[in-house]
Structures are given as structure tokens and as C-alpha cells.
Amino acid sequence: MSDGTTGEQRSSDRADQHDTNPGIPNGWFAVAFSRDLIAGDVKPIHYFGQDLVLFRGRSGEPKVLSAYCPHIGAHLGHGGRVIGESLRCPFHGWQFDGDTGSCVQIPYCERIPQKARVRAWDTVEKNRMIFVWHHAEQKPPSWEVPDIAKFADEDWSEPRHFELEVPVHMQDMAENNLDPIHFQFVHGMQMSGETNISFGNEGRFLTATTKNEQDTPYGKFEMELITHTWGLGVSSVETAGMPGVGLYMFTSTTSIDDATTVTRWLMTATNNMVDLAGEEWFKGVTRGVMDDLAIWTNKIHRAEPVFCEADKLLVEFRRWCKQFYSSPEQQTETQK
Ligand code: FES
Ligand SMILES: [Fe+2]
Prior knowledge:
Strand 14 and strand 15 form a beta hairpin. It contains 5 helices and 18 strands. The chain has a 7-stranded antiparallel sheet. A 4-stranded antiparallel sheet has the order 2-3-4-9, with no helix packed on it. It has a 4-stranded antiparallel sheet with strand order 5-6-7-8, with no helix packed on it. The protein folds into 2 domains: about 25-135, Rieske Iron-sulfur Protein; about 150-325, Naphthalene 1,2-dioxygenase Alpha Subunit, Chain A, domain 1. It starts with 6 loop residues before the first helix and ends in a 15-residue tail after the last helix. By secondary structure, it is α+β, with helices and mostly antiparallel strands. FE2/S2 (inorganic) cluster binds next to loops. FE2/S2 (inorganic) cluster (FES) binds next to loops.
């Protein structure tokens, strides 16, 4: 039976229900898997509420520039062409250096105007992902994306890739990591162990460890679920406890805008168990996120949630998140 509203009306009602939208956080965020960009590729991308262009220079390095040409505004990602380490505008051929964003050549004019530049975004490629540093005040990176040794370790399997876009604020998605109670209700899993959290790198990194005794076909083990978080955008979940056996998931969660998020995962298992249980685990984890999807797609962001006494971890998570936002007055970023 119709409730008399259109789908469009309903989604705008949901947008109106958000308390204060926290905006887009500062930090490192993946904008692509490495395998999706070969040398010479140019892609229009949209993250942090901004139109951007991602390309791979001939040296193999990925670069990200703001999308619109300072000349008369063509989108560099639609028809732009890689020339060495720079990108040529499809409209009149102005060429922009991928590292600085400066115009390095105008094919029909000697003198290059000083203002002929686009914003160049700090970009780094690690762990089979391409990361961009977003800072609403345009401050330079204040920490590094970690190197995950497992991705180069022969004892670990080739990782599975997984990507999902969800109409939810990115913080609400990241919050899942420190929400043991929802496992029971959303995923039908009991998480009985205590979770301990600790901080590193001036409080920007957070580690949560949950111990659980588990019966496995190989005996009883004290299993540990270890979640590392490097800023709001990058995290990992490791299952450890059986000697020489491990499951590992590396994820990055990125704001497309302040109400849409994309998450990318790499999942790997030790070779000695990948044939026995790896595929089931990979499938189980990706199936699990589909349970969360219904909640995320329909929830609002509560800036002032009502917490109960047992919600200590969520309270802690919210407090930790605050450092990654610039206040609206501080923000210097504009869409150009
Ligand atoms: S709009 Fe880019 S060169 Fe003219
Ligand atoms: Fe979940």
C-alpha cells in the first residue's frame, strides 16, 4: 500500500533527520585499488565532495589533481591525456604537472600565467591501494599509511578484493568496528570477550583487542580479534590465536560526499589454511556486510546519541573521531 510519498521525498526526509552532519573527516583514504589503474590511465573520480582526476604517470606513480582546468574549465578526467608525469587538458592542450599541479606547457603560447595551476593532492600507493590525503584546511599529511608486510609475504595468500558503496556517513560505517553488541543482533554472533583499546601516534591510531575462547576442529584456542585503525579511513582486522594460522582483512573507507561512502577491502589468509577455510571466511565476511547494509542504508547520523552505561566503546569511539574533523569556520576547502 502506498504511503503517499515518493521515493525522492522519503530520502530527503531522511537527510533532514540527521542531527548535525559531521562533514568529511581529515586523513588518508583509498580512492582506488592499484589493479584498476595502469600507466597512462586517466579516470574522473569524485571523493570528499570534490571532482578529481586520478591518473598514472609513465613512471608508474599514481597522481590526483582537482578536476577542472583553470583555463576555461574543462574536466581533465574526461579526455585528458598522460604525457610523462603530467596531464594534458583535452580542450586546448594545457599540460599540468601531476605532483605540483602547475601548468608546465601551453602548446600555443610561450608565457604561462602564474595562476595556471590546479590543486595537486598528496597521493600514496601502498598495500595494493591508492590513497589520497584529504584535509579540509588543506594541511599536509600528519601521519603515514602503514605498510602491511603480509601483502608481500609468501606465507599469505593473494588477497581477495571487495568494494561496496553505501548511502551512509563514513563515520557510521567505521563505527561498526567498535560495536560488539551489534554482532549479536545484526550478524547472529555472540561476542562475549572483553574488548581492550589502546592508542598510538599521538592518539590518532586506535587498537582494539577482543579475546574469545573458541572451539575449533583442532582444539580449544584463545582467539584474538585485533582491530587496528589509522585515522578514520584505514583499518585492519586480524584473527589470531592458532599458532601459524591467520586471517587478515585490510580496509579503507572513503567519503564520496557527506552522505555516501565507499569501502574497499583486501582479505588474505595464511596459505596453510586458505584451502581449508579461507574461501568460507572470505564469503562469510562479505555476506556479513550485507546484514549491515540494511541498517546503514536506512539510518540517520546521530550527532548526539543517547548512550547507555554499557556503550563505553561507542562513547570512546565517538570521542576519538572528533580529532579528525575541522570545524566549519576552519575549513578552507571549496569546490573548484
Ligand atoms: S580548458 Fe583546459 S586548456 Fe582550455
Ligand atoms: Fe557489522
